[in-house]
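Appendix B. Raw example, untouched.
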Amino acid sequence: MNKISFLVISTTLKETLVILKDKKNKIYKKTLTGKKSGNYLSVAVKEVMEKAKLSIKSIEDFGVDIGPGSFTGIRVAISTLQGLLINDPDKEVYSFFSSDILYFSAIKNSVLKEKKVSVLKKARENAAYVTLYEKGEMIFGPEMVFDNSLNKIIGDSVLINEEAGYFKQRCNLKNEIEIINIDEKVVFEVVKKSKKVKIKDLKPLYLQKPIAVENYEKNKNKI
């Protein structure tokens, strides 16, 4: 990997992650927990840059998580990065799936590399965001799947991510679950391979309508 400074923001992993690599490949990171962690995202970015002694203007590449996960969290991440780059609206940044981070962290130096693997994230009480991988390739998703169709989609794949435990119990799944740790080097490797888009055109991965919108549409149709 070229020696460049690289800032990555993710709000749909277990912990909100701000991670920065400088030109000497030294890594600085800050994690936030809790439902209101997005409120402190800008502060976390500032703290990481101060530790690395870098400014926004001196950082060459940026990456932001567009899902799957909390739509609100994703919008906070995008708006934070757009605010930081407000003077450079045509700057191209990497947009990546957090499920890729989980999968490629899981298969690094692991027998999972040869197995079919599903990343499950809770979308609703009765639905999961599902991304299915096999031999290093995404073969399904990310897509919202209701629990009555989940077993058919994931088959006998190995489940990763702690949220998979919720669906294993709810749907009586027999699949094996692996809990993994995020590999910091993998984060940058995955993001570097993802799609680039102008910061002004950055949008969240949109997999479902908010429940309030669905309820409004249902009530409207009854009239």
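End of appendix B.
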